[in-house]
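Here is one chain, start to finish.
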Amino acid sequence: MQYKKNLFILFGCLCSSLFAVAQNSTLSGKIMDTEGKPIRDAQVQLQKTELVVFSDSLGNYTIEIPSGKRLNLKASLLGYESEPFNVTVEAGQHLVRNVYLEQNATLLDEVEVKDEKIRGDVGTIGINTKDVDKLPSTIGGIEGQLKVLVGSRNELTSQYTVRGGNFDENLVYVNDFEINRPFLVRSGQQEGLSFVNTDLVGSVNFSVGGFQAKYGDKMSSVLDVTYKRPKSFSGSAMVSLLGFQAHLAGASKKQRLTYLIGFRQKSNRYLLQSQVTKGQYNPSFSDLQALINYKISRSLELEFIGNYALNRFRFEPESSRTAFGSITQALAFNVLYDGSEIDQFDNAFGGVSLTYKPNDRLKLKVLGGMFQSNEQETFDILSQYQLSLVELDLGSKNLGEDKISLGSGAIHRYARNFLQAAVANVGLRGSYDGGKHYLSFGADLSHVVIYDRLMEWERRDSAGFSIPYDPYQVNMYQSFRADNELNYNKVAAFVQDNILLNKDMILSLGLRGTYSFLNKEMLWSPRGNFSFKPDWDANILFKIAAGIYAQPPFYREMRALDGTLNTALKAQKSAHFAAGTDYNFVALGDRPFKLTAEVYYKSLWDLVPYEYDNVRIRYAANNNSKGYAYGGEVRLFGDLVKDAESWVSLGYLKTMERILDPATNTYGDYKPRPTDGRVTFGVFFSDYLPQNHNFKVYLNMMYATGLPVPPPGYTFNKVESFRLPDYKRVDIGFSALLLDGVKNPARAYSIFKGVKSVWVSLEVFNLLGISNTLSYEYIQSLNTDMNFYIPNRLTSRLINFKIAAKF
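Its structure:
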């Protein structure tokens, strides 16, 4: 009898278990963005449990949930606003629920390349821009974030280097138009605004290598920017101690016509006054941009983009004092100046595109654009210097003052450089969505016209003797004079197929061809990317890429140090190999994190040796070098503080080259390239007051090992003997929301009616007051044959105040 009772109890337990299992139901659907594009790797979590699933490459998700009760779930992905939702599912029922996520745009995150199947290309990073105006940066904008991410050693410029490449190896696109930068700018303090206006930006993708065939002919990186498509009237204004900017956006009633207009004015006077060289700084940089889009019909769109930039820089130096040396021997370099510098860099760009989209699969786009630049660089500055020993005796009343004069001299620099450039381009872009195949194709015809007049010299005097010394005549230290003219065409075409092998595997194959009518060189550039998710873990994505990248010479590469032009110069070439992985996980409760890691190797040949002069690049104008670059990067993105995103990036790079010796026709030993920066470490951190999210703090930290420095009398086949000191910098910003017009609209009669928000920010640049070194000025002693290296310092600690309003 007891036996039957036990069987009955066991049978009841089994029935209860089966019944409990039967109570589970299935919820599935698709995770998409606001444009209806599927989102990969988004997590769907049953709240207050550890039950989490992730969407696949097509955005699909499936999760088993208890039935018969109201459940709270949340869909989320780093870089997107979380979307909580509630469901009630009956026993055995299958419910479909699609979820749309909106970008919150406060952080850098890896996302798709626009207009393609969802993918995870090696090196592709999406940049979100919602709070970019609150991030502490001396240059601001998109580039301010990029420089912390990839490594930077000069806070006065918006230029950046990527994986061993220089400034000229970076591509920039805005709405499919390639953007050129000024030619003659030689220092960060002369540099105006970058082309990209953050107020107008809708989405940004950044590739640090292994990019696709649809992008142009450069060897390092691609910054691909798409401006907004406004749906209603809006605008913003921001004023700070460093400048002013404002924008307006709007659309017609049926949104057939949309427009964006942005104005920016920047003055670095406040920033430059903190530098060692004292004097009258009068920089003025301003630009006006417009984007107008008109829908002619449902399948035809016309778009115009225009930009006009006026950049002026006037500088009258007066004096400077630089202390350097060691605790046992301190030196002071005192300079009195006479003369001035007046620079002008005016740039204009206009582009028109016509897009035809007869159906959801086919898209054709015809583009035509023109870039014009009128640049003048004029200076005549005499520097009379004295080099002295500094008193270090703590008991002396003259502690810190000059004790003994070691010598004096003069440096006279003169330039009258004028350049006019025009680059015209017509092109075709097309795409066809064939389901498992996404085909892209395009072609471009470019016409380049350049007129350049170079006249520049430098005279050095040491205690009455000109250097280089000659007892019978006065020699210039260096002198350049040239009149150059270029007029040539270039054609390029590409085809690319993104193949969806299955829901977790995507293969991209592309071929790019380029021909220059100037040097008669035909270039072929095959490129490929492959990404897949393993069956054993849906949270991991593996990526590999390989390709040939060639960079046809532009004017800067063709012009040698003495101004002569080598129009037969061939393209620089490289073979890229890269592999990486992404890992999505949940930590610190229910907060999403992403860990990315990549390694790469570049084989480089037909290189043109070059040297840096602040931000100006001076080339040897010969393809007489070959080399390599390799390294790796690890980045962690996530909410260290809930709903306040942060990231950390660590990178290692080594890039070397061997230069051909014309005397022996053999390659010399490997030496570091000018961008051989080795270690970079960047941190972005955001936080807020626990009881008030309207008070926020943003922190940027940057560390980078020093770059190689050429010794005096440098020639391109000589090995550098030392490096700049490591670059260390911390910037911090505090922001407070003064007015929240969304949650608390102003009254109808208030002057703040229609204002969405007003933020006020206080920024501290170079919080730790570290004196970073940009380069060296060296002084030669004719009697002792010694060289004294005087560091050129970057900016010191500075406080900036700004206020921004959106309406």
